[in-house]
Amino acid sequence: MLEIPAQIWQKTKTSYIWRSLFRHGYPDSRKNQSLAVFTNVFLHLHPVKVRRHALAIPYTWCMGGLTFFLFLVLTLTGTLLMFYYRPTTEWAYSDIKDLETVVVFGQLLRNMHRWAAHGMVITVFLHMIRVFYTGSYKPPREFNWVVGTLLFFFTILLSYTGYLLPWDQLSFWAVTVGYEIARATPAIGDEFAFVLFGGFQLGPNALLRFYVLHVVGLPLTVGFLIAIHFWRIRKDGGITGPL
Amino acid sequence: MIRPHTDTTVAGLIGRIKRRQLLRVGFLGATLLALTELTAIVVPFFRVNKILGLGAKIAVGSKQSVFDQFKASNDTPILNVEGKFFLIHAPGGVVAAYRKCTHLGCTVPWNAGEDQFHCPCHGSLYDKHTAVVKGGPAPKPLQLFHIVADPSGALIVDTNPLNVIDRQANIWNPKDLEITE
Fold first, then answer.
1. Measured between alpha carbons, how far is A72 from A66 in angstroms, rounded to an integer?
2. Residue whose C-alpha is closest to residue B87's, from B154, B13, B6
């Protein structure tokens, strides 16, 4: 009776497609356990073996992992919001209003994006505090600390560029303050602000520029830096732990 | 003739430059050149040269029509929204006042009831005919844009905020007048 499914299972496991997808046997031997990790694109970031201390949540709070999780949430919800948002002065504000009142689940997605953005700034900050107080920035991890501070900087920039997009009074005047700060750059202030914002005051150019930076330029940069950041953790001896 | 890496028969500089080095330097040089060109393109590319609104040169009609409007409206300042300025009837002429409060940069509106400019943020007051400070925290009068009359008689206001008449003294100075009646 059970021979038929057993045969099908056996046939499937020895088929060409199965063996090209899974290039190792059942992970019950040390070799296959290693291969299961090595040959999986998602798992290969992780070490083959996890040290016991790495599982101690109180030591790291998993803040880096939470930050990455929020980054993924932001990427997903942000991409969905892009389907309804037009970055022009005519439409930006009313598109946000529509997302909140008309689009099915629009309010949910916008609020997820908004709170995840606030949350990411908080978790990045807590992550930095943890790394600092546990001394995890010390060699050989000093390079990764620098990558991390860059990521912090780009997180703030993402937050700042996203702030303008609703194009309401709050965002307009908040970013106007930013314009004046840019103008305070020594010697080249006026020219710097003009080139950066595309005008002598906030207008359609600034909105479009911030949009492109927010959805393409900065996320790509952050994704690239995240790859380096995670790779460095592995290369510097895995996740930090109590000495 | 570029020699392979193993050739040591020729002395001097020519002898020291091997094929590999030449290719390496050539490739590096080409990459640097391409990056330099890219930078040289990107920066001017981001510099907007078609400016709409604030920063543009804005035509506001003939001198006569401007003064006719003043006459018909008891000298009510004429608002130009996209250029962010008021045409105001100065003593003996017309000036264009940049409506950015000299206190902290708020957009200054005309207050018809009080017959003066009244900034909503911190209550700076500016005069109807000269835009000098009448009260509040503003440290100096509103800045003035340059106005020129083109050959056809139309007034053109240059709204470039980096090229303004920046009056420091809080009095009306007839020398600031560019268009006379």
1. 10
2. B154
Find chain A residues with C-beta within 8 A of B51's C-beta: 199-200
Give the DSSP H or E segment for B180.
strand B179-180
Tens-place pLDDT, residues B92-107:
899 999 999 999 888 9
Beta bridge partners of B96: B87, B145
Per-domain boundaries in chain B: 12-46, 57-180
Q: Could you tell me the pLDDT band of residue A223, with boundaries at 50, 70 and 90?
A: very high
Q: What does the block give as tokens for B79?
A: 């608002």
| A 19-48 residues inside an 8 A Cβ radius of B | none
SS3 content of chain A, % helix, strand, coil (to 5): 70, 0, 30
Q: Taking CB atoms and an 8 Å limit, are A176 and B105 in contact across chains?
A: yes
Q: Which residue is it, tokens 């296959």?
A: A32
Q: What is the pLDDT of residues A74-129, one digit of tens each?
A: 999 999 999 999 999 999 999 999 999 999 999 999 999 999 999 999 999 999 99
Domain annotation covers residue A107: yes
Residue A163: strand, helix, or coil: helix
**Backbone Cα Rg of chain B:** 29
H or E element, residue B97: strand B93-98
Q: What is the distance between the alpha carbons of residues B120 and A150, in angstroms, rounded to a whole number?
A: 40
**Superfamily for domain range B57-180:** Rieske [2Fe-2S] iron-sulphur domain (2.102.10.10)
Q: State the count of interchain CB pairs (< 8 A) between A and B.
A: 31
pTM here is: 0.81
